[in-house]
Amino acid sequence: MNNRNLIIVALGLTTLIILALVNEFFKRTLLIPSDYYVIVYCIFLILVNFFLYRYAKKNGKDKIFFKWILGFSLSAILIYFLLKLFLLKSF
Q1: Structural Rg of the chain based on CA atoms
Q2: Which residues contact 78 (CB under 8 A, 6 or more apart)?
Q3: Cβ atoms within 10 Å, residue 52
Q4: What is the separation of C-alpha 35 from the centre of its chain, rounded to a whole number of angstroms?
Q5: Residue 74 · residue 28 · CB < 8 Å
Q6: Closest Cα to residue 40, out of 70, 66, 20?
Q7: What angle in degrees, to the nearest 10, is found between the helix axes of 34-58 and 71-86?
Q8: What are the residues whose beta carbons fall under 8 Å from the beta carbon of 40, sequence distance 6 or more?
Q9: What is the 3-class SS of 35-62, one letter each residue?
Q10: What is the pLDDT confidence band of residue 81, given thresholds at 50, 70 and 90?
């Protein structure tokens, strides 16, 4: 797996997480409480990115991965909690 494919896989997984969070905001059709849902997805996102980072580091491609993918994932988590804190107080 080359550097480009690794970035595409990580961005795809991160996009799926963001789409799940958008689904939670607008549809609210979850069977479990929203906070637990978000925590589980955040943990999943961090674990996936950690293992992809280890793979990239093993192949000497860790600088691009660390700067962009992990930063993008953590910013997505931060944006969710900021939206929840300021915009959706009744959520």
Answers
A1: 15
A2: none
A3: 20
A4: 15
A5: no
A6: 20
A7: 170
A8: none
A9: HHHHHHHHHHHHHHHHHHHHHHHHCCCH
A10: confident
CB of 19 closer than 8 Å to CB of 82: no
The pair of structure tokens assigned to 57 is: 């580091």
Question: So what's the pLDDT on residue 1?
Answer: 54
The label of the residue with tokens 């962009």 reads 68
Packing angle of the helix pair 34-58, 3-26 (nearest 10 deg):
180
All residues at 6 or more sequence positions from 68 whose CB lies less than 8 Å from its CB, including other chains: 7
pLDDT tens sequence across 14-55: 766 776 666 666 665 544 455 666 666 667 777 777 777 777
DSSP 88: -
pLDDT value at residue 60: 73
What does the alpha-carbon distance between residue 26 and residue 55 come to, in Å, rounded to a whole number? 35
